[in-house]
Structures are given as C-alpha cells and as structure tokens.
Design brief:
single chain; alpha+beta; seven-stranded mixed sheet
Length: 273
C-alpha cells in the first residue's frame, strides 16, 4: 500500500510528498518552505536516517515506522503557532483510535490510566499507550519573507519497532499486537488533522483544543516531577493554562506555570530524575 491522503485532506488542498527513506522529514519540509512552498504539504516516510526529538535528541525511525511532517506557512503569532503541537497530539490520538479497534491491543484494553483513553497525551509532545511512549511530536520553525514563518509539525510513530535503550518505557503498535502499517496510520492521520485543525481555527479555537487535550491528558491530578534546566520541580499536575503551559501545584501549595521542561509521572516522579 502506498501513502495517500484522506479524501477530506485532498479536498482541502493538502498535498503529499512520500519517500521510502529521508534524512529528516522536518528538515525537508523547511527546505521546501525556504524555496517558496506555500504550505499544507505533508512529507512522509517509512524510514528516517537523521530524525530529531526535543532538545536535539535522536529520534530513530527504522523501516516500517512512520515519520510525517506537515508544513504550515503562516503569519499568525508564533505563540499561537506553537500550540499546533497540541493539535498534532489530538489528531494522532484520533487516528490511532480509528485504526486500532478496541480490544485489539495487548495493554490498555479497556482504556488508559484513567480508564477512558487507550492513547493518552503527555505534555507537551508525546502520545502514550498505558504509560509507554508510542509517538513523539516536534515543532521546528523558520522565518520567511513578508512577516511569515514556516512551522514543520513533525510526528514520529513507533509502528513496528521502538528503541529499548531509553530512560523511560516505550512501545510500538506491533508490540501492542495492533496490525497496522505506516500507510494506514498516515491515511487516518491526514483525515484527523483536518478535523482538529478546523477546530483550532488559526488559534481562535485554542480553548476547544485545550479542553479536548485535557480529556486525554496523561497524569492529570497525579504527582509529577518536571526537570527544568537541570532543576527538578515536584508537585501535582493541575491543568494546562490558556496558552497550553503546564500548571502544577507544589507541596507548599504554590501554583507554578511551566513553558518548557521534561515531565515524569508516578514512581519516576518520586525518584531522582
């Protein structure tokens, strides 16, 4: 099966560039933007040689996994464009729900840690299956002429394989017992993106995106530890604010709002992180 766009995505003017292997789908998408591409372009591959995660970490995409980047060219405020990562998380979770029938995965059969969602969203950029990392999202930007900038919304999913040398649990659709390939997942993702992007509405619908995201949030109401520039802040995950920043209440009752950091839940939050 070849990569293809959902009919809804094609009808809305999205385009597709598919590869067997690339260096980085994000880098390629931003190169296209600098060369004048108007955006609404999906760059996808089943293998990625030099993918990146947050803070420059390596993101491996071996043959059969999904590396997908949507190029968005906009003149919206950068603050609002940064929330496209939450749109991406919702779109991917919706796509996973669509392609993995209930009762067909090995863990989380009846839901996630809250009993509702098999696929949960970890702030700011991960999709989890019963606490294990299934996918990561990375936004990268480039400044363009005419007060515009490009946003590469990168989505990497462990479809057939996952790295085992990580300091946190990870998994893949294959390990969960889900019979789904990268092409099928991308088809559903391109459809789900269109729906969630309409909800986002250039940032005007961010409050609705926030509500939907919180309904899938991993660890909400539980103990968390957030590593920020080498320091660790511990407390209770209360919510995300109107700008989708992480909000915790520490042991002294103070409310802290965090714009960037590495979040750890449960037993890991109680240990040294």
């Amino acid at each position: 099966m070849a990569f293809r766009l959902a009919p809804t995505a094609a009808s809305e003017g999205f385009r597709l560039e598919a590869h067997d292997t690339v260096g980085s789908t994000n880098a390629l998408a931003l190169d296209h933007a600098r060369a004048g591409d108007p955006g609404k372009l999906w760059v996808v591959s089943k293998k990625q040689e030099s993918g990146r995660g947050r803070r420059g970490r390596v993101w491996a995409t071996p043959e059969g996994n999904l590396a997908a980047t949507l190029l968005v060219v906009t003149n919206a405020e950068l603050r609002l464009a940064a929330t496209l990562g939450f749109v991406a998380g919702l779109a991917l979770a919706d796509a996973l729900d669509a392609v993995v029938p209930k009762g067909r995965i090995a863990i989380g059969l009846d839901g996630g840690s809250d009993g509702k969602n098999r696929f949960e969203l970890k702030w700011p950029n991960d999709v989890l299956a019963s606490g294990a990392k299934l996918a990561g999202i990375l936004l990268e930007t480039a400044i363009l002429e005419g007060d515009r900038f490009a946003v590469a919304v990168g989505i990497g999913v462990n479809v057939v394989a996952y790295p085992e040398d990580l300091p946190y649990p990870a998994t893949s659709l294959s390990a969960l017992g889900a019979a789904c390939d990268a092409e099928t997942l991308f088809l559903a993702l391109s459809d789900a993106w269109s729906e969630n992007a309409r909800l986002w509405n250039d940032g005007r619908g961010l409050s609705a995106v926030r509500r939907r995201w919180l309904a899938r949030a991993a660890g909400l109401g539980g103990q968390v530890a957030v590593r920020i520039d080498g320091n660790v802040v511990r407390g209770t995950f209360e919510t995300i604010d109107e700008d989708c920043r992480f909000v915790i209440r520490d042991d002294k009752g103070s409310v802290l709002t965090i714009a960037a950091g590495d979040v750890h839940f449960g037993a890991v939050a109680s240990a040294q992180v």
